[in-house]
């Protein structure tokens, strides 16, 4: 299976994607709408692609000017495909971590926070507790975009995190969270 990078440095190039039920690639129409909505915010951003699947979202971010991307993907075949795509495109400042997002959160040594987090967990197992923990990795003013099935609300414990937008694309929903700047 192939996925097209839409715009930017790698625009028009195709990357491999696992053709498996264990991962699902965000559709091109949704990816395009997503990146059009965040605009220049991607420029120079430190990005986390959690539940990376094919890696198309993180690679699209790099193509559009992100400074670095960390991909977290538990599926061995999918994570190998992401690494192969990164190598094929000659992408620097990208790292693939082969583990679950929950395990990575428990053991991560990288203590820096992120400018943008993309989270696209399996629709049959949305892992809202893990998603809530990911929100804690946002820098003040930073953005997290969650792709989900729309079943159930994402519990938010942190009062500094606000939902700034919700968009529906058929069976897929995108919820945009923002870490509000501290006003003290």
Protein model, in words:
Helix content is 26%, strand content 29%. The protein is α/β, with parallel strands linked by helices and 184 residues long. Strand 3, helix 2 and strand 4 form a beta-alpha-beta unit. The protein has helices at residues 28-38, 56-63, 76-89, 101-107, 128-135; strands spanning 2-4, 14-16, 46-50, 68-72, 94-97, 114-119, 138-148, 161-169, 172-179. It starts with a strand and ends in a 5-residue tail after the last strand. The chain is globular and about 40 Å long. The mean pLDDT is 89. The protein has one domain: Rossmann fold.
Do you know the CATH architecture?
Answer: 3-Layer(aba) Sandwich
Q: Strand count, sense and closure of the main sheet?
A: 7 strands, mixed
Mean pLDDT: 89
Order of helices and strands: EEHEHEHEHEHEEE
Annotation field: number of helices: 5
Can you tell me the CATH topology?
A: Rossmann fold
Radius of gyration: 15 Å
Low-confidence stretches: none
The total domain count is 1
Taken from the alpha-carbon principal axes, the silhouette is globular
> How would you classify the helix and strand content by structural class?
alpha/beta
Helix content: 25-40%
């Amino acid at each position: 299976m192939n996925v097209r990078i839409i715009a930017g440095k790698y625009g028009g190039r195709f990357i491999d994607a696992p053709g498996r039920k264990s991962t699902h690639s965000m559709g091109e129409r949704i990816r395009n709408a997503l990146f059009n909505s965040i605009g220049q915010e991607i420029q120079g951003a430190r990005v986390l692609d959690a539940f990376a699947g094919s890696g198309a979202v993180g690679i699209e971010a790099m193509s559009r000017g992100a400074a670095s991307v960390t991909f977290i993907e538990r599926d061995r075949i999918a994570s190998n495909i992401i690494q192969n795509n990164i190598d094929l495109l000659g992408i620097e400042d990208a790292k693939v971590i082969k583990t679950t997002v929950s395990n990575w959160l428990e053991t991560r040594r990288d203590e820096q926070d992120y400018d943008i987090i993309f989270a696209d967990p399996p629709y049959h197992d949305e892992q809202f507790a893990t998603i809530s923990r990911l929100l804690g990795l946002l820098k003040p003013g930073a953005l997290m975009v969650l792709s989900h099935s729309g079943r159930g609300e994402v519990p938010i414990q942190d009062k500094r995190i606000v939902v700034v937008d919700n968009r529906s694309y058929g069976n897929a929903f995108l919820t945009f969270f923002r870490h509000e700047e501290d006003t003290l």
